Amino acid sequence: EVHLVESGGGLVQPGGSLRLSCAASGFTFSRNWMYWVRQAPGKGLEWVSAIDGNGGTRTYVESLKGRFTISRDNAKNMVYLQMNSLTPEDTAVYYCVTDETFDVAAVVSATPLGQGTQVTVSS
Predict the structure, then answer these.
(1) pLDDT tens per residue, the chain (123 residues)?
(2) Calpha distance 88→15 (Å, rounded)
(3) Distance from the Cα of residue 61 to its chain's centroid
(4) Integer Cα distance of 52 and 92 in angstroms
(5) Which residue of 14, 75, 113, 120 has the smallest Cβ count within 10 Å?
(6) How many CB atoms lie under 10 A from the CB of residue 77?
(7) How many other CB atoms are found less than 10 A from the CB of residue 64?
(8) Pairwise CA distance, residues 31 & 52, whole Å
């Protein structure tokens, strides 16, 4: 059974940084794409970033390029999202998601398995 546990969220001032973590289990971690998606209050899931199984390919939603960095540690079955220069528009619940392929449409149409981690950007 796939198990994903997100952590690292919190309250941060505009311009601040946070590093989100996701612990994964129940599947062959190194074979799967890992994604970060987010859901702002009253909105649907938005894809943020994705990384392939060996970490060689990383993709981001265009609006977040340069501020967010995704990474993974296959030895620890962990995926991370470093978020810098945060703005109030980044306020959302952040989820990690896994899929065997790169399919953003499928990822954002499914219900995340984890509980997510709340990121609130406010002064």
Answers:
(1) 999 999 999 999 999 999 999 999 999 999 999 999 999 999 999 999 999 999 999 999 998 889 999 999 999 999 999 999 999 999 999 999 999 999 999 899 888 888 999 999 999
(2) 9
(3) 12
(4) 24
(5) 75
(6) 18
(7) 18
(8) 8
What DSSP element (H or E) covers 107? helix 104-109
Give the separation between CA 114 and CA 35, rounded to whole angstroms. Answer: 12
Compute the distance between CA of residue 70 and CA of residue 58 in angstroms, rounded to an integer.
Answer: 7
Q: Which two tokens stand for residue 93?
A: 């619940």
**Residue type for 99, please?**
D
DSSP structural state of residue 85: S
Give all strands of the β-sheet with 18-25 in edge-to-edge order. Answer: 3-7, 18-25, 78-83, 68-73
